Amino acid sequence: MKYLFLIISVCVFFVSKTTAQDKTVNIEVGIIEHLGDTIPMDLEFLNEHNDTVTLGQLIDKPTVFSFVYFDCPGLCSPLLDGLADVVSKTELQIGKDYKVITISFNTKDTPEKAKEKKKNFVQKIGEENRDAWKYLTGKQENIKTITDAFGFKYKPQGVDFAHPSAIMVVSPDGKITRYLYGIDFLPFDLKMAVNEAQKGVERPTINKVLQYCFSYDPKSQGYTLQITKVMGIFIIFIAVLTFSILLIRRKKSDKKS
Fold it and tell me: Using one digit for the tens of pLDDT, what is the confidence trace for 152-165?
């Protein structure tokens, strides 16, 4: 267990040193953080009532984004369930303090499907708050533009998609301020993310270690540890540590002599 903790610690250290290079990374499935960037607010989508809306019309306060597709057999439902759960538990009030927008990245999804999917998850947050959580569908060019803006990378695989699992928070003017990874979220994390978004302050999250040290496995619909990459980092870390120890011992030996 202590060795696993050490490996994870090395991953965290390595990721913290490579954060500035994130936007240049080329990956097929995962997330390349675009903290501080502003999403295009003029993009048009269809809401669950089949009305055409722009993101600018919907975003007037901190907003939480999630990307899913409605027939997903794996991560999407647990993600939406986790999002509904944290919304129901946080001290902040959805609709008053922040909004939620879920966008399908499958062009075959329709407003009718969005409406049906929404029924399954708004129950936790209360019917009176349903309008504060929008479900959107759209054209391929608009979907690609918004997913690229967030650095959300997904890949078609037959009738399904390989994709990451995360929520993203933007400020009232569309500035990306936080990424939260996984399918379960802490009320404190959401509260902090919303408060920071209100101020326009972007903050990285330590869970970004999943992006580098873990890879998405479309077969298991989850993340797996990339042993080769992690062991390479671990070996370099041990080599540097060993060299440092030998250098210190040599200096102490020279002083004694």
Answer: 999 998 889 999 99
